[in-house]
Amino acid sequence: MCSTGPTCSITSNNPKRIDSHKVPMTSTLFRPSTKVLRILCFLPPALAMVAVAVYGVDVLRWDEWMVWINFLDRLDSGSVSISSFIAQQNEQRLLFARVLGYLHMVLFDLNRFPEFFTNLALAGMAFAGLSLLYARTEASLGRKPSVLVYLALSAFSFSLLQWDGFTQGINNVLFVMALFLAWGLILLQGEKPHPLRYGLAMLIGVLASFNFANGLFYWFVLFPLIWTTKRSKRFKLLASGMWLAVAAVVWALYFTDYVKPPHHPALTDALFKPHMMVGYFLTYLGGPISSDKATLWPLATLIGALGLASWSLCLISLYRSKRNALRILAPWLALAAFGVLSGMSTSLGRAALGLTQALESRYVTSGGLLWISLIPVALTTWREDFTGLPGALKPLARPLPWAEETSAMARLD
Prior knowledge:
The protein is an all-alpha fold.
């Protein structure tokens, strides 16, 4: 501590130091230590494990009955084949739901809890992938990762709003999709990814596509990353051609013998009621923050609109001021695009069921990717001080005082 007291200015000899008058002493007194924040990162998964252990129910639920009755009938008749594992169930294919579920049946009979904790483990692996993606992004931007961001990633990855994902075995596909998406982005991240990485990313894409229908969007959202690298134009064209060819085959296979579920609304229902579709879409995006169907569903709609507006402000600023940072943040834009496309496709097929249906627990994982991606993008935009925004919008986009203080204290460390 300075000899002149706690309010003295720190000298400028150390460029990492800042004047203490820029950071209120109250922030220092009540700022949690880095060690505490690291420990708190383990709190969301711990709470999720306790909740599943206490409130999980050892019984098949909802669509699990239809999935397993059909599969076990084929198994009993000796007619199981590869097509049995990717058979259509509603609009989905559920490859990993059947593979992992069958393995659990062999090992644990029909005890549901091992499958519940496998789902938690998959969420943990997705969290690990997102954390690595964030660390690599910060390294590319020349910054140190923030423990607060890791804490936010942990909170979203293990949010109990995903309750159906944790406690319904076939919903492991939700976390498998997040896992594959995160690691596919890691493979294509960087200035010059090794050619082998493109092949691995395509293999992951094939596996990701035959689960929930939104897995097909993997091919769309990762494709632009081929063109954000610094490889030659010839290499980019070759990689793009291979990527699009594999994507076309996968899409064709997915929709081979596909039948529109007769008990689901027609796609034209949403198109003839665009206001319902927009409302459903915004509610879907707000669901990872507020998912109370009874009374707070309008809040989810508002939160979804605010999320899209925040993303728009960040993109405008980064595009105008720091396009290099925008290139480095491309994987996070891909995550956001996946969340948005998932919301749009679900809105097209489900809007006729009403806005509250958008708050189903199984939608939180995909919709939450928009909010997860917003964290590093917003932090980068704050650090760029919104120099790229039109003058009239700058006052609306300024970070809150606590955010400025957190950024300043990070520099003190």
